[in-house]
Specification:
mainly alpha, two-stranded antiparallel ribbon
């Protein structure tokens, strides 16, 4: 626990400073680096052995992330948003189906091209979601999204540790409980409520819709966590890596961000369209 706290105290201020004050080129490069490291850890989980295969997986994730964002900003057809919508559909329906099948003893084929393509697409959509949110949201609200996920993680951990009795998904992650899930939800709801109050002018009358779409994003943050746990359990490894002492790998830290940020980006665009139609 001490090592986890020290790592967090070092990493969080650096992360916040980079997210708020870094110029766009440095911000983009930082996130592409995060995509590259996460892709490497995913390749390890998938069991890719060949150096060329691993390098190809990483290059595909980084290149497609960068090029889709560039095309999305340069042309009328926003490929970035389309990809985010498609991946959100996978998170909402297909990933829970995979988790259900795993609990029934039907495992995902990690080495299959479909599994590899799906994970790359999730990373690309995540990168594009980050770029969309960073471009549109006020800096404080952008950071607030991460704080909301951290609040959910903290609530789930402390409530689950103190009161957890009912297993949440014992075949995937035995230590997770429904009590912990409820605690994480309550902490995140408090964070969402505070953000809505602070940024009412920006949200501009869509407080209820913002609250419920954010709630969905937080719920699916837990799905993202379970999805990574399923992949690791099937691969027979405990952590995705060891880049952060006491925290495991980078994918272990951002697994819940992948679905939540994609959902927030799509819901933001959806609310923006509703606002535009309201003035027609």
């Amino acid at each position: 626990m001490k090592q986890r706290i020290i790592s967090a105290l070092i990493a969080i201020p650096i992360f916040v400073l980079l997210m708020v004050y870094a110029p766009l080129w440095l911000f983009s490069l930082a996130w592409l680096a995060i995509i590259a490291v996460t892709a490497y850890e995913m390749a390890r989980i998938l069991g890719l052995q060949s150096k060329n295969h691993i390098a190809g997986f990483i290059v595909a994730a980084v290149f497609l992330s960068g090029i889709s964002t560039y095309i999305g900003q340069s042309y009328f057809i926003n490929i970035a948003l389309f990809l985010c919508c498609f991946i959100v559909f996978l998170w909402l329906f297909f990933v829970p189906f995979l988790l259900y099948r795993y609990c029934q003893g039907k495992h995902l084929s990690l080495m299959s091209p479909l599994s590899q393509a799906m994970l790359i697409a999730m990373l690309v959509a995540f990168f594009n979601a980050i770029m969309i949110l960073h471009r549109v949201l006020p800096a404080g609200l952008f950071i607030g999204l991460f704080v909301t996920i951290w609040a959910s993680d903290a609530g789930a951990y402390f409530v689950g540790k103190s009161f957890g009795k009912t297993p949440f998904a014992p075949k995937i992650s035995p230590n997770k409980t429904w009590e912990g899930f409820a605690g994480g939800l309550l902490f995140s709801m408090l964070s969402i409520f505070i953000l809505i109050q602070l940024y009412k002018e920006f949200i501009d009358g869509y407080e209820t819709l913002t609250f419920f779409t954010s709630l969905i994003a937080v719920i699916y943050a837990s799905i993202g966590d379970l999805f990574e746990s399923m992949l690791k359990r099937q691969a027979g490894i405990k952590d995705s890596g060891n880049i952060m002492p006491g925290h495991g790998g980078l994918y272990d830290r951002i697994d819940s961000w992948l679905p939540s940020m994609s959902i927030w980006a799509v819901s933001l665009c959806f609310i923006t369209v509703i606002k535009a139609l309201a003035y027609v």
